[in-house]
Design brief:
The chain is α+β, with helices and mostly antiparallel strands. Helix content is 36%, strand content 16%. It is built from 29 helices and 30 strands. It has a five-stranded mixed beta sheet. A five-stranded antiparallel beta sheet has the order 5-4-20-19-18. Helix 20 crosses helix 25. The longest helix is centred in the first third of the chain and has 17 residues.
Length: 853
């Protein structure tokens, strides 16, 4: 027989011997003759009809089928695919017949089933020998009755059991598969006969060597060779091949993962080697060398790098876990979730993801330095997520915590992926703070408003004036405040955006519909991480919805991409076990904003970096970028989201356990508070991104976009209240009586308005009008006048009380006795009964000349 032919594993022979002794030699031999299996020896007698009936009622068809294999996950490094992780249900790599070492084939056949090439699935000689050995009190080298084909049947049934959907079903089917009862053994024999009829000996041998369990979570000879010897099953020595086959009868006590098993493994190995020598598959020299060796001489244990826990790349484990969850829902694996789950368990897939392993590692280093997972004062979490704007491809998914799926993770680690939705990472998202204001800005621009329109940022009671889904909304007692104490007055929308003025944005929202703001956010892919409905009450404008960081990065990428939103993509390509490319996640992009709206928003958000709340975020390369900061009321969640025209990045820091530790008050080892460092950290993250994805200039907003549908406030100074009311109404504004203030001019006339004349306001906006009580007047310019002239002018202006000081200013002859200074100063408004004090010039020494007395 050719040395290239070989075989596989067996079960303990005692059960076989007991079975043969129970059935009876004559009955068994007769049965096999009757069904067409020629025994190797002649045995008198024929089985009873009832025994044949039992046998014929058993199933006869089973398939080798596809075995669970490894799935390999790939990322990119320097633009080239690199393996990220190996993920499998069972550690297995299938080989073809000619890829398996001849030594392994010989070890399997010579050690387990010497007549493998001659029988049709059941070996009568071995069965009878097993029975004789059992009755005689020991089988020894006579061997067991299970052929490699019968063992393959048992392994197939064990494998089928492991693929059942519930633990209860798996345990029952597995126990049935290994049960050594008469009916089970008869079924195993009949199915082995069926296999032998359907498959060639080479296919059966290959199937067995690929399916057998070799201990320590290792299946198949290739995985076993890699795990125990750090080499391929194609290149094994006789000793290594025999050691692997020595494991199959007792995987738990003979595997090579522990030195305590070496002695038991060597004992069985030597039996196999002797059989290989006896069958002339080993020379005397090779046999002597193999027998003399010790497992410690050739075992080079290599731990399986299985699962995302062992993913290559600095901090890539969370993305790996996310990618696996995504691909298991893709239609490329099957039409139903059950089919997809089964396909993934069967494995053999190669998954090319979108991750840039270098950029992700750089961001992980940044988070480790600035948001250390060793922070013990509160539960600090942080993430960075970068999205390619034109495709939605996820370039990074970094997190400060280490990845750990154990039941009780250390404080420095977690199984929760803070970057993504609850269904993909277990995290429920975080309040976004003012980064959510961008959706009010976008809706503002969509409805025709402009960046140069003025809105009030002065805190006030804002319980009415809201519209939600076309209906009035009452926010009883709502008195919001700005983040910076004392921040009030009027702001252009552009400046309010850069400085993130809360009340200004709430005033903008009152001119819009809260549901429209929500729907604008939804059109950019925004949704709650817990799957609930986005809130659309007034406080939602300031970012109370809990949203995943990757979702916010994707939404801002829409602005980068000229108003086209692309759904996030993690999977570029799926390739099955045959090498067929099945495609990746479909690129799904949709124009959701007019390009001019996106460009105008980017222009406003550039101000955040230039002079607003994200100063310090600009990279040294000068790439045009925009951003928006966000801080919750308690500063327990801190954000900075923005990007270039190519890539958007979301940076989040926050409490992960519901605590309210203020990140403005806690300082990291990198210097400065966690909150104050965000612009610098984000800049460092964007710097290498800009090198790979150089951004372009954003389109300049048009004058129409800047002005919007706003109108100029007319100048009504000096008009009566009624005249001002009429003028403002005619211009499209609402008159608001600001009351009477101390001032000059004619009592009852307008002294000023807020906003002032020339300000751009949207139609229907309120203009507060202040009238004068006439009690004040303005100090005229009397410098250089004589005292009498100055007094006359002051009296004409309404000041009745004028006096001079006793002190004189130093002067020359030309200035003597003229006014040097006035109190109140020239141009000041003062009550008419105020005493105006004049200081005159004296001589060169500052003394009063005679002519001034």
């Amino acid at each position: 027989m050719s040395a290239q032919k070989s075989a596989s594993r067996t079960k303990p022979v005692s059960a076989i011997g007991a079975f043969v002794g129970f059935v009876g030699f004559s009955a068994l031999a007769g049965l096999l003759v009757t069904i067409g299996v020629t025994p190797a020896i002649a045995v008198a007698g024929v089985t009873t009809t009832s025994t044949i009936g039992v046998f014929e009622s058993l199933p006869e068809y089973i398939e080798i089928g596809d075995l669970p294999q490894r799935n390999e996950i790939y990322a990119y490094a320097n633009g080239k695919p690199v393996k990220l992780a190996t993920v499998y249900d069972q550690n297995r790599e299938e080989l073809k017949y000619d890829q398996i070492s001849d030594q392994l084939k010989n070890a399997a056949i010579d050690g387990e089933d010497k007549r493998f090439w001659d029988h049709g699935g059941v070996d009568m000689t071995s069965l009878v020998r097993a029975g004789v050995g059992s009755i005689a009190g020991g089988l020894g080298e006579s061997g067991g009755g299970s052929t490699l084909t019968m063992q393959l049947v048992r392994n197939i049934k064990m494998q089928q059991a492991l693929e059942l959907p519930t633990q209860e079903e798996r345990e029952k089917a597995y126990n049935d598969a290994v049960e050594q009862t008469i009916p089970r053994k008869l079924e195993e024999m009949k199915l082995a006969i069926g296999l032998a009829k359907k498959y060639s000996h080479e296919e059966i041998l290959t199937g067995y060597l690929n399916i057998a369990y070799f201990g320590d979570q290792t299946y198949g000879v290739q995985a076993a060779a890699q795990h125990y010897f750090n080499k391929s099953a194609t290149d094994l020595t006789p000793a290594e091949a025999a050691s692997i086959l020595a494991i199959v009868q007792s995987p738990n006590t003979r595997n090579l993962a522990s030195e305590k098993n070496y002695e038991a493994n060597k004992a069985r190995r030597d039996v196999i080697l002797k059989s290989m020598y006896a069958q002339k598959h080993l020379s005397k020299a090779d046999f002597d060398q193999a027998i003399a060796s010790n497992p410690k001489d050739y075992v080079h244990l290599t731990e399986p790098q299985q699962g995302c826990q062992s993913a290559a790349g600095n901090g890539a484990q969370f993305f790996c876990d996310y990618a696996v969850k995504v691909v298991k829902k893709m239609s490329q694996l099957g039409g139903t979730q059950k089919e997809r789950d089964q396909a993934w368990r069967n494995g053999g897939y190669t998954i090319q993801t979108s991750l840039d392993i270098n950029l992700n590692g750089q961001q992980k280093d940044l988070l480790n330095a600035h948001d250390p997972n060793t922070e013990a004062r509160f539960a600090l979490g942080s993430t960075m997520n970068s999205i390619e704007a034109s495709t939605g491809r996820i370039l990074t998914m970094a997190q400060n915590k280490d990845y750990d799926q154990s039941i009780k993770s250390p404080p420095t680690a977690t199984s929760l992926n803070y970057s993504v939705d609850e269904g993909f990472g277990g995290s429920k998202g975080f309040q976004t703070g003012s980064t959510y204001k961008v959706f009010t800005l976008l809706d503002w621009l969509k409805t025709g408003h402009g960046l140069n329109e003025t809105v009030s940022g002065t805190p006030r009671l804002m319980q009415s004036g809201w519209t939600e889904c076309g209906q009035p909304y009452y926010a009883g007692g709502y008195t919001p405040k700005n983040d910076s104490p004392g921040e009030n007055g009027n702001f252009t929308v552009a400046r309010a955006t850069a400085l993130s003025v809360n009340v200004a944005f709430l005033n903008m929202a009152q001119k819009l519909d809260l549901c429209d703001i929500r729907d604008t956010a939804k059109s950019l892919g925004v949704h709650r991480a817990d799957g609930g409905d986005l809130k659309s009450n007034p406080t939602s404008v300031l970012g109370i919805n809990e949203i995943a960081p990757m979702t916010m990065a994707s939404a801002y990428a829409t602005i980068s991409n000229g108003g086209t939103y692309c759904e996030p993509i993690a999977i570029d390509q799926v390739t099955d076990a045959t090498g067929k490319k099945l495609g990746g996640q479909t690129k799904q992009c949709k124009q959701v904003l007019d390009p001019s709206v996106a460009a105008t928003a980017a222009f406003a958000l550039k101000g955040t970096i230039q002079y607003g709340t994200a100063v310090g975020a600009q990279t040294a390369d000068g790439t045009p970028m925009f951003a928006k900061t966000g801080t919750t009321d308690d500063a327990d969640q801190i954000w900075l989201v923005g990007g270039s025209s190519k890539v958007a990045t979301a940076y989040w820091q926050g409490n992960t356990d519901g605590g309210k530790a203020n990140l403005r008050h806690y300082y990291s080892g990198a210097g400065g508070s966690y909150a104050s460092a965000r612009a610098d950290v984000w800049r460092q993250a964007m710097t290498p991104i800009n090198q790979i994805y150089p951004g372009d200039a954003f389109p300049a907003p048009s004058q129409t976009a800047l002005r919007g549908n706003s109108l100029n406030v007319p100048d009504v100074t000096g008009k009566t209240a009624d005249e001002a009311r009429s003028t403002l109404a005619g211009a499209g504004f609402t008159y608001v009586d600001g009351g009477t203030q101390a001032g000059g001019g004619t009592a009852g006339t307008v002294s000023s308005t807020s906003p002032g004349a020339g300000t751009l306001l949207s139609q229907g906006s309120s203009v507060t009008v202040y009238t004068t009580d006439g009690t004040q007047t303005t100090v005229p310019d009397v410098a250089g006048k004589s005292f009498d002239e100055a007094r006359g002018l002051l009296q004409q202006a309404g000041f009745a009380n004028v006096s001079t000081t006793n002190r004189y200013a130093k002067g020359d002859d030309g200035k003597k006795c003229t006014v040097a200074n006035v109190r109140p100063q020239v141009g000041a408004a003062a009550s008419k009964d105020t005493t105006v004090s004049l200081q005159l010039f004296g001589d060169q020494d500052g003394k009063a000349p005679k002519e001034c007395r």
